[in-house]
Write a structure and sequence with these properties.
Distance between the termini: 31 Å
Order of helices and strands: EEEH
Length: 62
């Protein structure tokens, strides 16, 4: 895992098409903005896991 420190307003890049900006830091919460192509799904971890589970169940795998 790559670990980076960023301050409010600073960015990081993932490849040429994804930009992540730290918008706000309050206590133990960080608000981020993500710019990515619409064709690239972006989910919070818990939503991603639910989507994956639904796909497996939809394919008859569960």
């Amino acid at each position: 895992m790559l670990i980076l420190k960023r301050r409010t307003g600073e960015n990081l890049r993932i490849g040429a098409n994804v930009s992540i900006t730290v918008l706000e830091v309050k206590g133990n919460q960080v608000k981020i903005g993500i710019r990515a192509p619409k064709s690239l799904p972006v989910h919070r971890e818990e939503i991603y896991r639910r989507v994956q589970k639904e796909r497996v169940l939809g394919d008859g795998g569960g």
